[in-house]
Amino acid sequence: MSAFLYQNGSLHAENVSLTALAKEHGTPLYVYSRSAFEQAYLAYTVALGEWPHLVCFAVKTNSNLGVLNTLARLGAGFDIVSIGELERVIAAGGDPSKVVFSGVGKQAHEMQRALEVGVHCFNVESEAELERLSAVASELGKTAPVSLRVNPDVDAQTHPYISTGLKDNKFGIDINDAVRIYEKAAGLPGLNVKGVDCHIGSQLTEIDPFLDALDRVLALVDELSGRGITIEHLDLGGGLGVRYQDEQPATPAEYIAAVKERLGDRTFKLIFEPGRSIAANAGVFLTQVEFLKLNEHKNFAIIDGAMNDLIRPALYSAWQAIVPVSETSAEPERTYDLVGPVCETGDFLGKDRPLKIAAGDLLAVMSAGAYGFVMASNYNSRGRAAEIMVDGDKAFVVRERETVASLFAGESCLPD
Ligand code: LLP
Q1: What separation in Å is there between the alpha carbon of 283 and the centre of ligand 1?
Q2: Disulfide: which of 10, 28, 51, 103 matches 305 by Cβ 3.0-4.6 Å?
Q3: The ligand 1 atom nearest the CA atom of 318
Q4: What protein family does this chain belong to (predicted)?
Q5: Which residues are known catalytic residues?
């Protein structure tokens, strides 16, 4: 059940009124639901049941400490792509031994820190990275657990910017080269081959591409085993889609049941790196209408939220539902483009939306818990929004609104 429902005509996050939150904390504002995060995470662990597993939330999706802490308390693992994300996980009480380290450009100092805190596995994306990791680990006198992220060359049938498993993407190692590179890994000092990793893209609504990738990974694992290289875990990445508009994505339960069936009596530990399917529908972005501008050909609602706060519509032409916080309105229905104050034609959060609104009204952009705040910028010297975590009838500020002073705190004028 959604955590964002109308109560007495007014949209709530769990039992907290969004109008009250906007009044107290101002807009634009990100509002999350603790129980929505928890339920979405548990959908994975419940479906995995007794099967050995680790569900590593993809930190890039929403890296707020309050969010990470909510999941860490449930025993979640985390998928990170930078030292910054690793330090966030640690600061939020996450267990480093449940962290997988992904990403194509890991630097030596990042590898060092990850080895010091003892991450679960490095998902290595190139031969050059493997050599660097071997050198860094050997110098520290440590052994790095590794998986190779293989690129199974399957079409995830998603937006080209978020499809990652095709041959011409920058990610992963060509699966046809994988045996040779695994053999190399097995012979390099400071490395311990643990698993195979793949991630083919994001916002996948069908299970078939995942299963195609799994079949190719299993064929690789068999070949490795024939050459004396034993694999302990399969990391199937993230990628499961959510409903933004009218998509009918598979549920984690359906996806995991299909994976288990495909594995048959193979007993590999399974790692998943879900992001969007845990976070997207656990958050909304609240914004206020500043002005209505009714032109001959087009109506604009100029809102106080902008592309710097939520870039998905501008960057991917992504569609997210936009609803009034108050269910009742005496205004006539008109079709609006919802545009922000940033000086770019691409600065919109929604286009051609039928709405009954007036200046001063609050709107909620739905499904904003994933790739929302994390992709925000200070473009046009706009401070980033505050973030609130709602828990039942309580609301906690999990990130304060950025002040104007903080915008240039690290900058300086030239000397005299
Ligand atoms: N693992 C790896 C290695 C990834 O690259 C990603 C996402 C995930 C896991 C999590 O995938 P998810 O479960 O969220 O699909 N900013 C874009 C999405 C970029 C996805 C990047 N990688 C958007 O707003 O749609």
Answers
A1: 17
A2: 28
A3: 25
A4: Belongs to the Orn/Lys/Arg decarboxylase class-II family. LysA subfamily.
A5: 343
How high is the pLDDT of residue 227?
97
Report the binding-site residues for pyridoxal 5'-phosphate. 239, 273-276, 371
Residue 220 has pLDDT above 70, yes or no: yes
Q: Which residues contact 329 (CB under 8 A, 6 or more apart)?
A: 356, 357, 358, 361
pLDDT at 155 over 80: no
Q: Cα-flanking dihedrals φ and ψ of residue 336, to 5°? A: -120, 150
| pLDDT, position 81 | 98
Q: What is the dihedral sign for C-alpha 178, 115, 84, 411?
A: negative
Answer whether 79 contacts ligand 1 (Cβ < 6 A).
Answer: yes
CA pseudo-torsion sign 45, 50, 51, 56? positive
Q: For a substitution probing ligand 1, which of 202, 273, 374 has the most ligand atoms within 8 Å of its CB?
A: 202
**Which amino acid is located at 253 in the chain?**
A
**Ligand 1: does its nearest atom lie under 6 Å from the Cβ of 165?**
no
Both structure tokens of 4: 């964002």
CA-wise closest residue to 367 among 244, 210, 254, 228: 244
Is 80 exceeded by the pLDDT of residue 164?
no
Q: 390: CA distance to ligand 1 center in Å?
A: 25
Is the minimum distance from the CB of 276 to ligand 1 under 6 angstroms?
yes
Reduced to 3 states (helix: H, G, I; strand: E, B; else coil), residue 74 is coil
Displacement of CA 206 from its chain's centroid (Å) = 19
Beta carbons of 137 and 144 less than 8 angstroms apart:
yes
Euclidean distance between CA atoms 336 and 371, whole angstroms: 24
Give yes or no for residue 165 having a pLDDT over 60: no
Q: Which domains does the chain have, with CATH numbers?
A: 4-32+280-407 (2.40.37.10), 103-272 (3.20.20.10)
Return the residue whose CA atom lies nearest to atom 16 of ligand 1. Answer: 371
**Residue 95 vs residue 156, higher pLDDT:** 95
Q: Would you list which residues are annotated within the binding site for substrate?
A: 276, 312, 316, 344, 371
Q: For residue 80, is pLDDT > 80?
A: yes
CA of 274 to the centre of ligand 1 (A): 8
Helix, strand and coil percent figures for the chain, each rounded to 5: 35, 25, 40
Q: For residue range 357-412, list pLDDT tens digits in order.
A: 999 999 999 999 999 999 999 999 999 999 999 999 999 999 999 999 999 999 99
Locate the ligand 1 atom nearest the alpha carbon of residue 370 and give its number.
24
Res 170: pLDDT: 77
